[in-house]
């Protein structure tokens, strides 16, 4: 049975696993906005589970962030890019969306597997989970991390990440070209050079294993799965994307010094990069 990755499969959004109850509304959170004032974001959640058979339990957990002050539809479509079904960006609308996604997931597991699921004789817990995390809002650049994981039989569960940065000043998703004019092939050479700067933490009998020792690709792509802070641009890769599953997810930094002379003037000024 194939594994599911909620983010990659563009299906749902996460919270934490739970039992048979819904948490209808998350409390408002305050995230530091270093340019102006506190940035307030709300959230909606669903945590629920059901028994398909005596041996099979299925859980669905999901969390969506809510941005009451954002009104630009194109920007909101980009923020909630996982599913085109989201049309109502209000708190009530997003809660209703999650409730429907949960019910649809339970129904699909039950109906799609009814020909063989009764043959499951040992206890199994399948799940689908995903969440949106507001990581930062600095100088008008809002970084959201989308994390999803799932299990529907097989050797192990799967998980994946999607990083997106939104330019709130210009109401758009930030693209790599908005940061640097360096050609992608040159960035990819830097990624290969920096592959071992942040180790994934993988160990074997001889100790720590380098990221470079687990690569499955000859060239590391300069993907759109990036974010940044005041020191580096970071590219984030999910399991299997560039390395073996045992490597986990891998993050590779590219310093502003590496990109010197190619940084977009507006970006450089807003981020106060020397």
Structural class by SSE content: alpha+beta
Provide the low-confidence segments as ranges: 1-30, 32-36
Q: With helices defined by DSSP (H or I, 4 residues minimum), what is the helix count?
A: 4
Average the pLDDT over all residues and give the rounded result.
Answer: 86
Q: Report helical residue fraction.
A: 10-25%
Note the beta-strand portion: 25-35%
Query: What is the gyration radius calculated from CA atoms?
Result: 20 Å
Strand order of the largest sheet: 1-2-3-4-5-6-7
Order of helices and strands: EEEHHEEEEHEEEEEH
Structural shape: flat
Main sheet attributes: strand count, strand direction, barrel closure: 7 strands, mixed
* Spatial gap, N to C terminus: 52 Å
Query: How many strands appear in the DSSP assignment?
Result: 12
Protein name: DUF3298 domain-containing protein
InterPro entries: DUF3298, PdaC/RsiV-like_sf
Pfam families: DUF3298
Write the layout of secondary structure elements.
Elements: E1 26-31, E2 39-51, E3 56-66, H1 73-79, H2 91-112, E4 124-138, E5 141-151, E6 158-167, E7 172-173, H3 184-193, E8 203-204, E9 207-208, E10 226-228, E11 232-237, E12 250-255, H4 265-270
Parallel strand pairs: 3-4
Antiparallel strand pairs: 1-2, 2-3, 4-5, 5-6, 6-7, 8-9, 10-11, 11-12
Characterization of the model:
The structure is a single chain. This protein has helices at 73-79, 91-112, 184-193, 265-270; strands spanning 26-31, 39-51, 56-66, 124-138, 141-151, 158-167, 172-173, 203-204, 207-208, 226-228, 232-237, 250-255. The chain has 274 residues and is of the alpha+beta class. It has a seven-stranded mixed sheet with strand order 1-2-3-4-5-6-7. A hairpin with a 7-residue loop joins strand 1 and strand 2 (39-51). The longest helix has 22 residues, at 91-112. The radius of gyration is 20 Å and the shape is flat. Residues 183-257 form the DUF3298 domain.
């Amino acid at each position: 049975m194939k594994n599911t990755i909620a983010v990659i499969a563009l299906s749902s959004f996460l919270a934490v696993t739970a039992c048979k109850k819904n948490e209808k509304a998350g409390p408002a959170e305050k995230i530091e906005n270093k340019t102006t004032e506190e940035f307030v974001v709300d959230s909606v959640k669903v945590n629920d589970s059901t028994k398909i058979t005596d041996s099979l339990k299925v859980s669905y957990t999901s969390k969506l962030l809510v941005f009451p002050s954002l009104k630009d539809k194109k920007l909101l479509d980009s923020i909630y890019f996982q599913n085109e079904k989201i049309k109502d960006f209000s708190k009530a609308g997003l809660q209703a969306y999650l409730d429907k996604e949960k019910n649809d997931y339970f129904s699909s597991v039950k109906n799609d597997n009814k020909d063989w699921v009764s043959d499951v004789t040992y206890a199994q817990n399948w799940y689908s989970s995903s969440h949106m995390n507001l990581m930062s809002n600095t100088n008008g650049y809002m970084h959201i991390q989308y994390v999803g994981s799932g299990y529907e039989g097989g050797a192990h569960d799967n998980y994946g990440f999607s990083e997106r940065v939104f330019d709130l000043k210009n109401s758009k998703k930030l693209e790599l070209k908005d940061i640097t004019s360096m050609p992608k092939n040159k960035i990819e050479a830097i990624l290969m050079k920096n592959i071992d700067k942040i180790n994934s933490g993988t160990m074997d009998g001889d100790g720590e294993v380098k990221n470079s020792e687990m690569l499955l690709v000859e060239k590391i792509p300069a993907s759109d799965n990036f974010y940044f802070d005041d020191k580096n641009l970071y590219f984030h890769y999910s399991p299997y994307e560039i390395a073996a599953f045992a490597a986990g997810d891998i993050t590779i930094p590219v310093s502003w010094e590496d990109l010197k002379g190619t940084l977009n003037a507006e970006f450089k000024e807003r981020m106060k990069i020397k």
